[in-house]
Specification:
single chain; alpha/beta; Serine Threonine Protein Phosphatase 5, Tetratricopeptide repeat; five-stranded parallel sheet
């Protein structure tokens, strides 16, 4: 007899002699044939199954070679007894004399006794064909694993019923050692230890269970927790409940028509557990989410897990092909096998059939038949006390008593995760994409080299499973990098999915078309107009930008709510305190589709103009906030809107500019307002970006008209250039700003550019010119009154820099202290923090280290409040300067190493004044410390986080 083992290994023996099938493809072919014994498989099918990426002729040649290797291995026992092959087909003889471990496992049914189960399960040595990764193997492996797990669980129940505690200890541990994390095994072990009176083992087993499940990120089920509590309390009657369960399971096989997926289920552990938990507490659960997000797949997976929880089964009703809502009850009746009655409606017939049934009814794809599905669910649930309904839909059914579960996208990485390559496979989208792509391209795997491209694909497709599946198909003709590069045209790229899928799931565009076509005209208008926003938006912004025509402002809330309900708009964030504005957004893939629709409707220019106008007004309003004691809150608000501000500054581009003609000037002036209003915000981390944006806007300003908006924008450009020591460029911007202000005869436009020009002259060593500019700025600011009080304080502080640079520290201290006294009243962190550092450095050079430490600490706290990174790093450099002055040279070197690393990582620089102190101190340190010791300390500092370095800096001062 031929003995074939495929569980845990591939092995073929004849009379204890191993027969060698020498290649992996030949082994795979042999396994496929024997698992499907009795079927004659067409050669082209086998060739395509086993070599899907090869040319047809190559695949056929490979098949012939694999068949030759199989025959060679079986030659000693006459291969023709087992294999039948002709020019068209190949098959394995089902009546041949052979034993197959898989067949024995599949023969097990609900009537098998404990000893019969033990006899078969003893042969189980692991999962099907380990290290084989063909798609057909993966599917068959899942099928056999579910049979094994069910048989093991049933065996433990029977052994408990028969009180065979020693056998339970043996088989429970066997199951766990296979590398799985089976709760039934842990429960059985706890019961066995309790029956033997060993309560310490009960507790230890429960702890093992908890620890094992924590590795999966889940807690033990309520069943396991309750059993443990009953065993501890001594109230568990071992064997009684399980006897009833076994008898019920023996009486009937599972009843279901659930589809069997052809691909593996990836991720979704939390959602799957939540779904099953909710179904235990509600009678109507609707899974909602955008098209292609995986609602159906999640429902099928969870429903398979629940089959034995419902006496009368789990029944699946596919509604996508149905166009007529009145036929929904009839389709349900056909699935359940309910016959038509001349005296009753279909709904009544189904209700009568289900009246006493304990059953889960799954209604898939309800969105286009929402009213009919809601009505049927209401009628059935009101008549059938033991019925539960699981629905999938792009919007909720809208019924009393309904519970909804929003199905999110698969977790996906941001590009920053590339540096942590070993963690990338934790993301569900990465797992899905790589597995699906590897099924088409068997040698593909995630590597350090392709990680960036894979991450781009998963990130830009928002972790939408359907989009990832469609992208994986493209691996046949494109490299990973080419797929990532072509995602700007994602709707044309992501086509030609599975031929067996629903038509609307064969391309990404068709999937979203389905949702769009179900919207009313007003909903469609609002939906496409929302595409102008980036990175989220508020309801106030929607009302200002997206109204008009068939969308009146009073309608917006209702229409907007409908888009949220239909999973086309997402709720991004709401303050946990209930304060502030709720933010909304769209998945980038949905937004790209809506943008195409906006262009087709001819509305893009009008809506983008409104978007620009809204955010120009928003920036002007924010300017008052960032110069107030509410600065930190406004910085946070601006960070939320940074993508919208970028979109406003970047529009229009290309051919649209020429089409707009003279309107270009009006657009540029509004963009100048955005640039000029937010100088302190840009300085925190957007300096390079805004400088380049401003240069582009100036080049597009063909009219070259002298306006206040342009003067202010040039002023901000000069300030930003000064802040990272590009002094000649800063001077050119500032002098042009001053020229425009003087021609307009507007003194309010002179205050800040004069001040920044004074700083620039100071940096160039031209102290007389610096003093003249600063004193003129200070005089104008004082005349302009209360609104320019901050400018007065800042000008006074920078007038202190001149005596400071000339070595007159008492005069510098006096100037700084006067400025700080005034700036404290305003409570503006961005203005006060740099001045505190200037005075702190006076303390360092005068040897007043306590005062210097206190001032740097105050500046540090202000920078942390406003999330000002390079201001925080500047304070770390200040603490290092104190250590250097106290001759703690190694500690100073460590801190300066961290400063350098932080600046390099963030791509930013210190303010010009801070840069001078940093470079001066580092030069002094190099003179004081041996090069070898300096290098070691510096390298150590580069490994520290900013917080670790600050903690080190503060030691000895506290």
């Amino acid at each position: 007899m031929l003995e074939i083992r495929l569980l845990g290994k591939f092995e073929v023996k004849n009379k204890d002699k191993i027969l060698t099938i020498s290649s992996r493809p030949a082994q795979s072919l042999f396994a496929y044939l024997v698992l499907n014994a009795g079927t004659a498989h067409r050669r082209e099918k086998l060739a395509g199954l086993l070599w899907p990426d090869s040319l047809e002729q190559t695949a056929r040649d490979n098949l012939r070679h694999a068949l030759w290797r199989m025959r060679k291995a079986l030659v000693s026992i006459s291969a023709s007894r087992f294999l039948h092959a002709n020019d068209l087909t190949i098959g394995f003889e089902k009546s041949a004399d052979y034993w197959l471990d898989v067949a024995e496992l599949e023969k097990l049914d609900e009537s098998a006794s404990a000893d019969e189960l033990i006899a078969v399960l003893s042969e189980y040595q692991g999962e099907l064909l380990p290290d084989f990764y063909e798609e057909w193997v993966v599917l068959e492996r899942e099928h056999l694993s579910s049979i094994f797990e069910h048989s093991m669980a049933r065996l433990l129940v029977l052994l408990q019923e028969e009180k065979r505690w020693l056998d339970i200890l043996d088989w429970g541990e066997r199951w766990i050692k296979l590398g799985q994390k089976p709760e039934p095994a842990y429960r059985a072990l706890m019961s066995a230890h309790a029956a033997k009176g060993d309560m310490s083992r009960v507790a230890a087993t429960y702890e093992r269970c908890v620890k094992s499940l924590h590795e999966l990120g889940v807690e033990p089920s309520e069943q396991t927790q309750r059993l443990y509590e009953r065993l501890k309390a001594g109230t568990e009657h071992l064997g009684v409940e399980s006897t009833v369960a076994v008898k019920e399971k023996r009486s009937e096989s599972p009843k279901t028509n659930l589809p069997v997926p052809l691909t593996s289920f990836i991720g979704r552990e939390r959602e799957s557990e939540e779904l099953k938990h909710l179904l235990a507490t509600t009678r109507l659960l609707t899974l909602t989410g955008t098209g292609g997000i995986g609602k159906t797949r999640l429902a099928i997976q969870a429903a398979h897990d629940l089959i034995r929880s419902y006496r009368d089964g789990v029944w699946w009703v596919e509604l996508a092909p149905l166009a007529d809502g009145t036929r929904v009850p009839q389709v349900v009746a056909q699935v359940l096998g309910v016959q038509e009655s001349p005296s009753r409606s279909w709904t009544e017939s189904v209700g009568n059939f289900l009246h006493e049934k304990q059953l889960l009814l799954a209604l898939d794809n309800c969105e286009h038949l929402i009213t009919a599905c809601a009505q049927l669910a209401n009628d059935l649930l009101s008549q059938c006390a033991h019925l539960r309904i699981l629905a999938t839909s792009r919007e909720a059914l809208g019924m009393t008593g309904e519970t909804t579960l929003q199905v999110p996208a698969l977790s996906f990485p941001v590009l920053a995760h590339i540096s942590r390559f070993q963690n990338l496979q934790e993301f569900e989208s990465i797992q899905l994409f790589v597995e699906r792509a590897a099924a088409i391209h068997p040698h593909l795997e995630l590597t350090q080299e392709n990680a960036f491209a894979v991450t781009q694909i998963c990130h830009r497709l928002d972790g939408i499973p359907l989009a990832l599946e469609l992208a994986a198909v493209r691996i046949k003709v494109l490299t990973l990098a080419e797929i990532a590069q072509r995602l700007d045209d994602r709707f044309n790229l992501l086509t030609q999915g599975s031929r067996t899928a629903l038509p609307r799931h064969q391309t990404l565009r068709a999937t979203i078309d389905w949702s769009y076509e179900l919207l009313s005209e007003s909903e469609q208008i609002l939906f496409r107009r929302l595409s102008v926003f980036a990175g989220g938006f508020t309801l106030a912004a929607v009302e200002a930008v997206a109204t008009g025509g068939n969308v009146a402002q009073p309608q917006v809330i209702a229409l907007f709510g409908n888009l949220i309900n239909k999973s086309l708009v997402t709720v991004h964030r709401q303050s946990s305190s209930g304060e502030g504005e709720t933010r909304y957004g769209m998945l980038e893939t949905i937004r790209a589709y809506a943008r195409e629709r906006l262009e087709e409707a001819g509305e893009e220019v009008e809506i983008r103009e409104r978007h620009l106008e809204f955010f120009a007004a928003f920036a002007a309003h924010a300017q008052k906030g960032i110069y107030s004691r509410e600065q930190a809150r406004w910085f946070k608000r601006l960070d939320q809107e940074i993508d919208n501000l970028r979109v406003a500054l970047d529009w229009p581009a290309g051919s649209v500019i020429q089409e707009r003609g003279p309107d270009r000037h009006e657009v540029t002036q509004k963009q100048f307002v955005i640039v000029s209003s937010l100088s302190l915000f840009w300085e925190r981390g957007y300096r390079y970006e805004i400088i380049e944006t401003l240069r582009r806007l100036l080049s597009l300003d063909a009219a070259n008209e002298l306006t206040a908006e342009k003067a202010r924008a040039l002023d901000v450009g000069g300030f930003l250039l000064w802040s990272f020591n590009r002094l000649p460029e800063a001077r050119a911007f500032l002098e042009e700003s001053i020229q425009i202000a003087e021609k307009l005869k507007d003194d309010s436009l002179l205050v800040w550019p004069l001040m920044y020009l004074g700083w620039t002259f100071w940096g160039l060593g031209q102290y007389d010119s610096a003093r003249k500019c600063l004193e003129r700025s200070l005089a104008i600011a004082k005349l302009l009154g209360e609104d320019y009080k901050g400018a007065v304080g800042v000008a006074m502080a920078y007038l202190g820099d001149i005596p400071y640079a000339q070595g007159n520290l008492p005069e510098a201290r006096k100037r700084y202290e006067e400025a700080i006294l005034l700036l404290r009243e305003l409570q503006n962190p961005s203005m006060l923090a740099p001045s505190l550092r200037r005075l702190a450095y006076v303390g360092v050079y005068e040897g007043d280290f306590v005062q210097a430490f206190n001032l740097f600490s105050e500046s540090l706290e202000l920078n942390r409040q406003s999330a000002h990174h390079h201001g925080t790093v500047a304070c770390l450099a200040g603490f290092a300067a104190i250590h250097l002055a106290q001759e703690h040279f190694e500690k100073a070197a460590i801190l300066y190493g961290c400063v350098e690393n932080q600046l390099q990582q963030s791509g930013s620089t210190l303010l010009f004044t801070d840069t001078i102190e940093y470079e001066r101190s580092v030069s002094h340190l190099r003179q004081k410390l041996d090069e070898k010791i300096l290098s070691a300390a510096w390298a150590k500092g580069r490994t520290l986080t900013l917080e670790q370095a600050i903690e080190l800096a503060l030691k000895g001062f506290r």
